[in-house]
Amino acid sequence: MLLSYSQTKDLDQEFGSSFYLINVNKLRNNYFKIEKAFKSRYENFIIGYSYKTNYLPYLCKEMSKLGAYAEVVSRLEYDLALKIGVNPNKIIFNGPLKTYEDIKIALDNCSVLNIDSPYEVDYVLQYCKENQRNEVKLGIRVNFDISINGKSPLQEGYEISRFGICTANGDFQDTLKKLSQVKNIKIVGLHGHFSTSGRKVETYERITKGLCHLAKKYIKDTVEYIDIGGGFYGELPSSFELETPSFDDYAEAICKIMNIEFEYSECKPTLIIEPGIAMVANTFHFIAKVVETKQIRGQYFVLIDGSVHNIKPTLHKRNLPMQMVKQRDDTNLGTYHIVGYTCMEKDYLAYGIEGDIPDRGDYIIFDNVGAYTIVFNPPFIKERPSIVAMDNSDFFVVRKKESIKEFFNEDLYVFN
Ligand SMILES: Cc1ncc(COP(=O)(O)O)c(C=O)c1O
Hints:
Structural class: alpha/beta
Radius of gyration: 24 Å
Oligomer: single chain
Low-confidence stretches: none
CATH topology of the largest domain: TIM Barrel
Number of domains: 2
Number of helices: 12
Order of helices and strands: HEHEHEHEHEHEEHEHEHEHEEHEEEEEEH
CATH architecture of the largest domain: Alpha-Beta Barrel
CATH superfamily of the largest domain: Alanine racemase
Helix content: 25-40%
Bound molecules: pyridoxal-5'-phosphate
Largest sheet: 9 strands, mixed
């Protein structure tokens, strides 16, 4: 059990009757496990933590302390990285939408910049015109077919990814040509993140090979990094009953290809990965107090101080792994649903659970809520709850509970 009843009650009194709990040790362990798996097989290796997955500043800072680069996809995330003290040359600036100002700040600061579309080439050329003395290093996110046996592994079954510059229609080659006309530009990296539903090892083999072949063919003399993006499985709770690749499985396949492809290179390019889910999903819990257990036409509804938005902002139907912290020792077996405080019929945090029915004053702990919850959690009906860090036996707040002042920010809203 993560917490005893008296510990949970104490936390409730200090931080509110619902809150997130981040397990800092677990986060560090995830980082070390990923790093060890890859670095033991390919020395020149960098982890860029994907901010969008969970940009809690405390978490991002912890990642940076461990040695991770910041992988950002917007100026907001870029500025957050700067705000928490990340060295700008340890920021990887990706994403489909960048302004001229974004490109300028990334290049001025010598951040790792991966352009995603041909319009960004114009901005880079404009920057070079205005800054003729600076050497400009640049990466390109490339788009190529990663189907295996004619089947696309992309999420939602999409045939074609919408990201990156197409290598099949000549756009990539045109981009290289345009950029090569300016002598202070160096194309130093290729980026190839693909979001797939299966997160299979063979998909990463395909991506890594694709990037290596393009790098050897087009930027052989300047290549400094191969960035294969994120999208890996992390360690899943056993209740998911899914057999998934381990960090070692991914690393073995990817590093083997890197080692073979660059066997005869004097200076092997850096391998970059950008894990999000794999790094943080299992490091967060959401804890909420049971307010009521009522029976309606033979079914038990357990109302808690939380909402489906707190744990499953995508509103998927799967029940998450959870634990119950009971106030009393008695047991009352049955089937129940856990429902939230919003006025939506579909606000179910868990459906059709069989077991000991929670009672008023008990607490429910939902596990595995670290990815895309904090960032997708809309301020809907109620203020956002606090986030508490657990570092060994220390507990401390890393985001306070929101109040009406922050919810209706007086600098933003008009009240009369
Ligand atoms: C460019 C890029 N890198 C990394 C990631 C992280 O992916 P995941 O959280 O699945 O590891 C994403 C997610 O969409 C992404 O778009």
